[in-house]
Design a protein that fits this description.
A four-stranded parallel β-sheet has the order 3-4-5-9, sandwiched between helices. Strands 6-8-10 form a three-stranded mixed β-sheet. It has helices spanning about 5-20, 50-60, 80-100, 135-155, 175-185, 205-215, 230-245, 260-270, 280-285, 295-300, 305-320, and strands spanning about 25, 40-45, 65, 105, 160-165, 165-170, 190-195, 195-200, 220-225, 230, 250. The relative contact order is 0.14. About 45% of the residues lie in helices and about 15% in strands. It starts with 6 loop residues before the first helix and ends in a 6-residue tail after the last helix. The protein has a domain at about 5-175 and about 200-230 and about 290-310: NAD(P)-binding Rossmann-like Domain (Rossmann fold, 3-Layer(aba) Sandwich), CATH 3.40.50.720. The chain is of the alpha/beta class and about 325 residues long. It contains eleven helices and eleven strands.
C-alpha cells in the first residue's frame, strides 16, 4: 500500500492488519512514520515519482492499495502535484499490472465527482467535467481517476475506486486541511464561518470502506465513502461543544473574503507558508459538498457512524497529543 504514514493510509494499514493481511507500506525517505509505530508493517522506501521504486514495492504483492496523495488546497507548483497524483498513480498501477496483482483499490476523492447545483446530495453518477472542477488538487484527483479507468478498459486492470468525502478522526499528524480546520476551531481560532456544507466521515469508516472495496467491490466501479452531510456552521458548533468553547456566530459573505484570499496567496508565494484562505477555498465554498453513500451501503455493506463520533475522536486525539490544552 501507499500512503501508510498518512492520515487515511494509517487507518487503512490498521484495518488490513486487523483482517490478517501482511502489509508492505511504501514510504518516502525521511518521511514522518509515527503513524506506523508499533505496527507489524514492512516499510519499503520509494516515491510516486520514482517508477523503479514502485516496481520494487509491488513485487510479490497480491493486492495494491493506493492511498497516498499530495493533499493541499494551494500549492506553489501545480506541476509537482500533477506528477505525484496523476503520473504517480498511473505508474504504480502499471507496475501492479506487470506483477500480476489480483486486485487494486484506488483511493480517489469526492473532489473528483460532480456536485448538485441545488445543494442536494451528489452520487457516483452525478455529471462532472474537468472545466467545472475548482482547484489543482481536485483536478489532479479527477485526472488520476480517469487514468485508472483507462487502465481498466485498455489493460484489464482489476481496479475498484473509492471516493472518501471529508475524513475526520485520530492520527491526523500533519494535519490535513480538514484536520487543521478542526484543530483551529477547537482552539478558538475560527471566530467566523462561511455558508457552505460538507460531508463528514470518520477516518476509520473510510478505512473499513477500503476493506469492503477490496473484498466485495466490483471491478471498474466507484464507491463514495461518506458519512453525514452538514453545514459548516453545524460542524464548527459540534467541534465547539467537544472542546468546551462557544461556536462561531459571525457569518462572513464569500465576497468579503476575496481581498484577504489574494493577500494570503501573495504572502504564501513569498514566504512558502500555507495561506490561511485562498481563492480556491472561496470558489469551493459556493457549492455545498453533499454526497450520498447509498451505493456503498447497498453493494458493500458500508455502515458509517455519526459525524459526532468522528469529531469527538479528532478533538480527543489533538488533546492527548498536546495540540490542545487538557
Amino acid at each position: 500500500m501507499t500512503g501508510g504514514t498518512g492520515f487515511v493510509g494509517a487507518a487503512v494499514a490498521r484495518a488490513l492488519l486487523a483482517r490478517g493481511y501482511d502489509v508492505r507500506a511504501l514510504a518516502r525517505r525521511g518521511s514522518d512514520r509515527r503513524n506506523l509505530d508499533g505496527l507489524a508493517v514492512e516499510i519499503v522506501e520509494g516515491d510516486l515519482t520514482d517508477r523503479e521504486s514502485l516496481v520494487r514495492a509491488v513485487a510479490g504483492c497480491r493486492f495494491v492499495l493506493h492511498v497516498a496523495a499530495d493533499y493541499r488546497i494551494w500549492v506553489p507548483d501545480p506541476a509537482a502535484m500533477l506528477r505525484a497524483n496523476v503520473e504517480g498513480t498511473r505508474a504504480l498501477f502499471l507496475a501492479a499490472l506487470d506483477v500480476g496483482a489480483e486486485r487494486v483499490v484506488y483511493c480517489s476523492s469526492v473532489a473528483a465527482l460532480g456536485l448538485m447545483a441545488d445543494g442536494t446530495a451528489a452520487d457516483e453518477r452525478t455529471p462532472v467535467s474537468e472545466d467545472k472542477i475548482v482547484g489543482i488538487y481536485k483536478r489532479s484527483k479527477y485526472r488520476a481517476e480517469q487514468a485508472v479507468l483507462d487502465l481498466v478498459r485498455e489493460r484489464g486492470l482489476r481496479a475498484v475506486i473509492v471516493n472518501p468525502s471529508t475524513p475526520v478522526g485520530p492520527r491526523d499528524i500533519k494535519p490535513t486541511p480538514t484536520g487543521k480546520m478542526i484543530l483551529d476551531a477547537a482552539a478558538g481560532r475560527m471566530p467566523a464561518y462561511v455558508d457552505t456544507g460538507l460531508n463528514v466521515v470518520h477516518v476509520d469508516d473510510v478505512a473499513e470502506g477500503h476493506m469492503l472495496a477490496l473484498e466485495r467491490g466490483r471491478i471498474g466501479e466507484k464507491y463514495i465513502l461518506g458519512g453525514e452531510n452538514m453545514s459548516l456552521r453545524d460542524v464548527l458548533a459540534m467541534v465547539a461543544a467537544e472542546s468546551g468553547r462557544r461556536p462561531p456566530s459571525v457569518r462572513l459573505p464569500n465576497a468579503a473574503l476575496w481581498p484577504l484570499a489574494l493577500a494570503c496567496e501573495a504572502v504564501a508565494r513569498l514566504s512558502g507558508a500555507t495561506p490561511l484562505v485562498t481563492r480556491d477555498h472561496l470558489r469551493m465554498a459556493r457549492k455545498k459538498m453533499f454526497f450520498s453513500s447509498a451505493k456503498a451501503v447497498a453493494d458493500l455493506g458500508y455502515a458509517p457512524r455519526p459525524a459526532r463520533a468522528a469529531v469527538h475522536d479528532a478533538v480527543a486525539w489533538f488533546r492527548v497529543t498536546g495540540r490542545l490544552p487538557a
